[in-house]
């Protein structure tokens, strides 16, 4: 079916008090697995390409983007494309022309005033191209090898009053909030601050996004969705599934050289992870 938009999926999820799962993809196998997993449980899904994934591909956005578009357009469920954690203005300018309907502009590393100024400028550029735009306030941590912030460190959690002002002054369409998750977690041990999420949900009238969801247990994810999270980002969980399948295959068959043999298993493992996640979130209809 034709590509849908992230904004449309988010609007539908918000009306149903549910959440859209948004999976970070690096390879074609990631893309195929996300769509296959979503089709298996008949759930809509968002494919995310991060700025780091673009850097991995030599700074070229279009090869992976066009592959994602081709797979998405043949999907039996609604699929949208989202550009994630963009810091480069040059990359932001390529978003709409590459098939993406949305972008997460990441200036959360900057002091509040600088984050606001940079995000406001990004919002103006994105909206002029018809793009739905997400930003981040607070620091979720764990990106680019940096450890997550201590729960009590200044700026480690999103302040509701500050968030209300930030959303009003920046004009963003959604806000990623720091409530206890962390990027790149390989264990599902994160404990979310649900009291803070309740305050944020009451203070804001835009969809709330949870980053670093691979490290969040299923019951915590379900509680977060019930508490107001409308977009759930997952990346590391796919990489764990892919790497584990390849590692196990090659450990048993050190003589193997044909990548199709182990990439098939890796894709199947990621597909199962996608389907399980969608069921846990309540997004599945099958």
UniProtKB/TrEMBL annotation:
Instruction: Name the positions where Zn(2+) 2 binds.
Output: 106, 136
Q: InterPro entries under this entry? A: Aldolase_TIM, Class_II_FBP_aldolase, FBA_II
- Please provide, alphabetically and separated by semicolons, the GO molecular function terms listed in this UniProt record: aldehyde-lyase activity; zinc ion binding
Free-text comment on the cofactor: Binds 2 Zn(2+) ions per subunit. One is catalytic and the other provides a structural contribution.
Name the GO terms of the biological process aspect.
carbohydrate metabolic process
> Where's the active site on this chain?
84 (proton donor)
Signal sequence, start to end: none
Q: Which residues does the annotation say bind Zn(2+) 1? A: 85, 183, 211
Q: Which cofactor does it need?
A: Zn(2+)
Q: Which UniProt keywords apply?
A: Metal-binding, Zinc
Name by which UniProt lists this protein: Fructose-bisphosphate aldolase
Species name: Streptomyces cahuitamycinicus
């Amino acid at each position: 079916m034709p590509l849908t938009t992230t904004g449309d999926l988010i609007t539908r999820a918000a009306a149903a008090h549910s959440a859209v799962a948004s999976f970070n993809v690096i390879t074609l196998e990631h893309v195929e697995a996300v769509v296959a997993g979503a089709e298996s449980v008949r759930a809509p899904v968002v494919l995310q390409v991060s700025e780091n994934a673009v850097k991995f591909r030599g700074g070229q956005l279009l090869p992976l983007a066009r592959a994602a578009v081709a797979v998405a357009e043949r999907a039996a469920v609604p699929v949208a494309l989202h550009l994630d954690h963009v810091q480069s203005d040059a990359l932001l300018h390529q978003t709409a022309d590459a098939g993406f309907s949305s972008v997460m502009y990441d200036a959360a590393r900057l002091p509040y005033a600088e984050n606001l100024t940079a995000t406001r400028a990004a919002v103006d550029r994105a909206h002029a191209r018809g793009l739905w735009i997400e930003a981040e306030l607070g620091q979720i941590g764990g990106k680019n090898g940096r450890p997550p912030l201590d729960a009590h460190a200044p700026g480690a959690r999103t302040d509701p009053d500050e968030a209300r002002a930030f959303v009003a002054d920046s004009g963003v369409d959604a806000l990623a909030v720091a409530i206890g998750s962390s990027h790149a977690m390989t264990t599902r041990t994160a404990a979310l601050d649900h009291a803070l999420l309740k305050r944020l949900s009451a203070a804001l009238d835009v969809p709330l996004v949870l980053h670093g969801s691979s490290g969040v247990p299923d019951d915590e994810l379900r509680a977060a969705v019930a508490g107001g999270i409308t977009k759930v980002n997952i990346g590391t969980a796919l990489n764990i599934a892919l790497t584990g399948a390849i590692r196990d295959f090659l450990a048993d068959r050190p003589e193997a050289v044909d990548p199709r043999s182990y990439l098939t298993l890796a894709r199947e493992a990621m597909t199962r992870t996608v389907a399980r996640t969608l069921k846990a979130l309540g997004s599945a209809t099958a």
